[in-house]
């Protein structure tokens, strides 16, 4: 296989579905699903996913740049790797999703929607992770990096979203995220339907959703803006030097979620509101009929505000920064 991205965009299966070179063996499992296994012993199993949202193209281009020298036998491979392009039909259409947001359907939530392509794709991706990690040795480290770009601009250009995890995060994982240029980490305190929550909850993987910049169409990405993430991924895959950490990411935790429940939902934020915009205590954030959302802590920061989501889905998260003094508002 010469070009994994172009093969996926073609919508056809490759004529040759497995092969090897001096450093690795590769196998095409399914549309947008590729396994690479090094010929040298390894203690790390790494899942790299992108295009869970089809309009987020820069991470796809970065992954393809990293894969090409591996498949050509020009670079060594250190970990076992499963590469996933999550939603190929949406990627081909240049849309976030076609019918349902794929990143709300994991951990079996695909069973709650009408049977269709995205429900079946969520199941197929869950099965792929199970198959990949069932082959893990007892001493293998499991990491899952889900690469995204955000709809909105942000006060933190690059940040990571960490799923609920009952275990402490590994120090080397947090250090890698800092080396990848992440300026902030957001820690969930409740389960969710994301791909990274699925891998963390069901397979004990150290997982993170990496938001690496602004979502743009193919051909419009300035990949130089992703150099830290590219270099950090090259260090994982090839053993190249990990970028130096100049500043540790700021840590935030989710304080509350804004959910759209009906067509009466109104989000009191403009389209230009950036991720991590701060709001003072008492600010009315949104209303949905008789339900109103206010800032409850002394200061809260918004993440992923989106009034256009389907009913029942998250229309935004409100965060507090760890270390800031908080005092909840009595409503």
Automatic annotation (TrEMBL):
User: Which cofactors does this gene product need?
Assistant: Zn(2+)
Q: How is the cofactor bound?
A: Binds 1 zinc ion per subunit.
Active site per database record: 211
Identify one Pfam family in the record.
Answer: AstE_AspA_cat
The record's catalysed reaction(s) read: N-succinyl-L-glutamate + H2O = L-glutamate + succinate
Identify the enzyme class.
Answer: hydrolase
Gene3D superfamilies attached here? Zn peptidases
- Pathway involvement? Amino-acid degradation; L-arginine degradation via AST pathway; L-glutamate and succinate from L-arginine: step 5/5
Query: Could you confirm whether the keyword Ligase appears in this record?
Result: no
Looking at the record, the residues that make up the AstE/AspA barrel-sandwich hybrid domain are: 248-321
Which GO MF term does the entry hold, naming one?
Answer: succinylglutamate desuccinylase activity
- Where the record annotates domain Succinylglutamate desuccinylase/Aspartoacylase catalytic, the positions are 44-236
**Keywords per UniProt:** Arginine metabolism, Hydrolase, Metal-binding, Zinc
Regarding protein family, the annotation reads: Belongs to the AspA/AstE family. Succinylglutamate desuccinylase subfamily.
| Function of the protein | Transforms N(2)-succinylglutamate into succinate and glutamate.
Q: What is this protein called?
A: Succinylglutamate desuccinylase
